[in-house]
């Protein structure tokens, strides 16, 4: 058989096999943008559990985070903290392409008078400049006053349309 | 090729085990906000947000719409931009400049290797490619004819991949595999390509199947980015490209010399070959400091090797010299870029650049000793080895000032120093302005003083006296050192959105140079040798139109330009005496092409994407002292692509493309002209089938 034809058949066989294996096991994760749902939790129990946790990318942390969210869903708290001032950053021209379909999750630590003591990105965007712009804006947020200090997570979707 | 394929398949199977576990995203109910922004103007021809000057952009969609889609070389993509001229061996010329293009990946400048980078990059790993031209701000130095700004895929937390196979005429066979993913804070993107065909270089004849013109190329590219914290990211780019070429033969040539006791091989059977390797690594730290300073600090290293293997007997008989050349270059350096928003109207940018390069050149030449009457006596070997270190330093400072909303001013300067065979430095002012006449119309302009050192990797301290009284004796003994080119560059343009679907752009430029740099091929090796003209002038005008609506998109570019220079004042030994004499007055440079145009369209009909594009060239220069012009040519290309579904493979994309639809025979060069080695013919009608599957 002609060398090139034989070579072609062998290589095609390898590629079909590889594509078959990949297409049957490769699952693309999608980050689904969540529609706006305001959820607040002012319970002390949750505050203590959240206070020192940072999303370090460990599986246990992720699981614990999901557990806490589910726990919170079950025990609706007594008081809602409304953000009364929530400036959002402008995406500069040179970052618009990077911001396309990007997601970040921020955690607020809010004192009794509704001021933001600290905000951190527990799930940052991939671009440090976007994260910096987001943090600068989020630090300026104000919430309504409450009986106790709380922590709260917020999801931010960057959408470029 | 089989070994590469086998090891690559094993790699894919290993990847399969990584992705076997599924990850599901819980739909939770935490507070959510959307930050929206309008897309940047997605027309191809627009103003760059970085420079305020003209920018021509190719998105991934634009690249996929090219006849060869992502299998196109980077230079093939750039030929669809205005003012870009096609030349042989994968070269391009931007606005009449020889090879003065700067390549950046994710804002880091890549030091250029010994071979043309257009063949070391493919476009598989590019998310977008922008060509920045004009009076560039101070952060861009050295290679300034155009900045090829490549943004890589990856950089976001997503998993995916793509497999591709290409088959086609001239025994073309190629594969590509891309994989991207993330683990915790680590993002990665990997790309591997293999390509072989029997038309690696433009052949000296019009034959459909050139003689001795095979190529085998493999390229690997990896991008890794690790988020150290929310405001700091470490990224690593590693790449390797190996290109092997056979030098195409011209049959039925007559030998110039006789070999005593040996038969002279037919010119169709010569076996000259060239191997090129380019490897580079870039480690970059990007972030924002507590003082609100944006920064990117990069360390880079580039190793390049070019090896030319002569056909010893054949080259001696036909050329009088058979040279085996091995050139290596290792460059290491540092680049730092910083910016800080001083207030609402001012952004300060500053930075530095340093590069140290060591080039070693080893040449072993066989030549004939000549007697007094010029007849060959005997053969002998001449060793011509050299090493050279070069350093390049640069500092810049610039301010972007927006006195009011419609006007943006960019002014600054850079200080550069180059130490090699010559030691030179320059303080280069830069100024640019953009004004929004209306919301749809912008005018822009600028001035830049440029400092362009010769490419260190091409310099060698050839001892030409060794070749006296041999068949390779230089025509004359002049060998002045190659100097830095210094130029004044002016640019003025207007950009207008005629309708929401149609954008127009008109741009003009004028450049005046001292020690204008050019490069020529003076041997069979695909290594260019730089030389200077004492004075040069280049000017031109470019028009671009870009239309996009629903399923239809089209583009049209046209440019008219002229580049002339006089008085060759370095590497004079490369030229004949009468050429040097003629060049004392202004002549066209060999890559000067008066008119260049590219246009094309794509239309999506019943889920099939139909496309065509065309390249027009009025012809490069030819003849004694570049006095004449090659004939013009127009090459049409068509393609059609569709998503299909098949058992086992499921959904995949099939594309069929035909280059040079009307099978027109045309030449890029005929072998005459200053610095032109051989005749080169353009591609004949060739069909490609590209199958790809995304994950």
Question: What's a concise summary of this model?
Answer:
The complex is a heterodimer of chains A (161) and B (695). By secondary structure, chain A is α+β, with helices and mostly antiparallel strands.
Question: Would you give an account of this structure?
Answer:
The complex is a heterodimer of chains A (about 160) and B (about 700). With about 160 residues, chain A is α+β, with helices and mostly antiparallel strands. Chain A has five helices and five strands; from the N terminus they run αααβαββαββ. Chain A has helices at about 5-25, 45-50, 60-75, 95-100, 130-140; strands at about 85, 100-110, 115-125, 140-145, 150-160. In chain A, about 30% of the residues are buried. Chain B is mainly beta. Helices cover about 5% and strands about 55% of the residues of chain B. Chain B has a 22-stranded antiparallel barrel. Chain B has a six-stranded mixed β-sheet with strand order 2-3-8-9-6-7. Chain B has a two-stranded antiparallel sheet with strand order 4-5. At the A-B interface, helix 1, helix 3, helix 4, helix 5 and strand 5 of A face helix 1, strand 1, strand 10, strand 13 and strand 15 of B.
């Amino acid at each position: 058989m002609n060398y090139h034809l034989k070579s072609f058949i062998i290589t095609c066989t390898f590629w079909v096999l590889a594509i078959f294996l990949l297409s049957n096991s490769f699952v693309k994760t999608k980050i689904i943008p969540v529609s706006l749902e305001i959820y607040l939790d002012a319970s002390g129990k949750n505050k203590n559990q959240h206070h020192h946790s940072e999303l370090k990318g460990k599986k246990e942390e992720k699981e614990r985070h999901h557990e806490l969210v589910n726990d919170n869903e079950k025990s609706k708290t007594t008081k809602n903290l409304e953000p009364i001032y929530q400036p959002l950053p402008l995406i500069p021209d040179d970052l618009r392409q990077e911001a396309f379909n990007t997601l970040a999750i921020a955690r607020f630590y809010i004192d009794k008078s509704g001021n933001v003591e600290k905000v951190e990105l527990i799930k940052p965007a991939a671009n440090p400049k976007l994260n910096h712009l987001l943090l600068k804006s989020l630090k300026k947020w104000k919430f309504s006053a409450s009986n106790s200090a709380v922590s709260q997570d917020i999801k931010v979707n960057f959408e470029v349309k | 090729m089989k070994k590469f394929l086998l090891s690559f398949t094993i790699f894919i199977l290993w990847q399969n085990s990584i992705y076997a576990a599924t990850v599901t995203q819980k739909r939770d109910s935490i507070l959510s906000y959307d930050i929206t922004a309008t897309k940047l103007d997605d027309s191809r021809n627009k103003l760059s947000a970085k420079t305020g000057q003209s920018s021509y952009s190719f998105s991934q969609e634009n690249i996929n719409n090219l006849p060869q889609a992502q299998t196109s070389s980077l230079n093939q993509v750039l030929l669809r931009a205005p003012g870009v001229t096609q030349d042989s061996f994968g070269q391009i010329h931007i606005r009449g400049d020889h090879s003065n293009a700067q390549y950046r990946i994710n804002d880091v400048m890549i030091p250029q290797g010994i071979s043309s980078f257009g063949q070391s990059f493919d476009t598989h790993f590019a998310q977008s490619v922008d060509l920045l031209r004009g009076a560039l701000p101070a952060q861009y130095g050295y290679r300034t004819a155009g900045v090829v700004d490549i943004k890589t895929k990856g950089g976001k937390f997503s998993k995916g991949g793509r497999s591709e196979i290409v088959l086609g005429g001239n025994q073309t066979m190629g594969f590509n595999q891309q994989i991207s993913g993330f683990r915790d804070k680590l993002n990665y993107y990997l790309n591997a390509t293999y390509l072989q065909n029997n038309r690696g270089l433009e052949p000296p004849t019009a034959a459909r199947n050139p003689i001795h013109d095979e190529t085998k190329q493999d390229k690997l590219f990896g991008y890794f980015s690790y988020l150290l914290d929310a405001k700091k990211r470490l990224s690593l780019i590693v790449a390797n490209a190996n290109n092997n070429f056979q030098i195409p033969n011209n049959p039925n040539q007559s030998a110039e010399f006789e070999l005593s006791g040996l038969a002279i091989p037919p010119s169709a059977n010569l076996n000259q070959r060239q191997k090129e390797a380019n490897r580079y690594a870039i480690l970059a730290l990007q972030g924002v400091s507590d003082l609100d300073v944006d920064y990117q600090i990069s360390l880079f290293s580039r190793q390049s090797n070019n090896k030319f293997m002569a056909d010893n007997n054949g080259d001696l008989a036909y050329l009088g010299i058979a040279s085996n050349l091995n050139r290596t270059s290792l460059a290491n350096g540092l680049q730092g870029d910083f910016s800080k928003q001083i207030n609402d109207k001012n952004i300060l940018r500053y930075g530095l650049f340093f590069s140290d390069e060591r080039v070693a050149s080893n040449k072993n030449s066989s030549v004939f000793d000549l007697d007094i009457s010029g007849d060959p006596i005997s053969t002998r070997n001449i060793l011509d080895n050299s090493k050279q270190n070069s350093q390049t330093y640069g500092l810049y400072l610039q301010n972007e000032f927006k006195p009011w909303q419609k006007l943006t001013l960019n002014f600054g300067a850079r200080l550069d120093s180059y130490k090699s065979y010559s030691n030179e430095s320059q303080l280069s002012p830069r100024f640019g302005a953009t004004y929004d006449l209306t919301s749809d119309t912008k005018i822009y302009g600028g001035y830049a003083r440029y400092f362009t050192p010769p490419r260190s990797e091409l310099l060698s301290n050839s001892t030409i006296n060794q070749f006296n009284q041999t068949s390779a004796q230089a025509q004359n003994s002049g060998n002045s050192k190659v100097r830095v080119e210094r130029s004044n560059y002016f640019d003025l343009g207007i950009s207008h959105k005629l309708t929401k679907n149609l954008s127009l752009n008109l741009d003009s430029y004028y450049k005046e140079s001292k020690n204008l740099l050019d490069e020529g091929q003076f041997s069979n090796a695909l290594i260019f040798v730089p030389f200077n003209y004492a004075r040069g002038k280049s000017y031109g005008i470019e028009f671009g139109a870009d239309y996009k609506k629903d399923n239809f998109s089209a583009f049209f570019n046209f440019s008219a330009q002229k580049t002339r220079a006089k008085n060759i004042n370095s590497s004079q030994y490369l030229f004949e005496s009468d050429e040097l004499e003629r060049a004392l007055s202004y002549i066209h440079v060999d890559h000067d092409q008066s008119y260049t145009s590219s246009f094309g369209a794509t239309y999506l009909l019943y889920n099939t994407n139909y496309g065509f594009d065309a390249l027009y060239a009025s012809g490069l220069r030819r003849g004694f002292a570049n006095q004449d012009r090659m004939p013009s040519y127009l090459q049409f290309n068509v393609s059609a692509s569709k998503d299909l579904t098949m058992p086992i493979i499921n959904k995949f994309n099939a594309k069929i493309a035909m280059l040079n639809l009307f099978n027109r025979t045309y030449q890029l060069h005929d072998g005459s002209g200053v610095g032109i080695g051989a005749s080169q013919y353009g591609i004949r009608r060739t069909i490609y089938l590209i199958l790809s599957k995304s994950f």
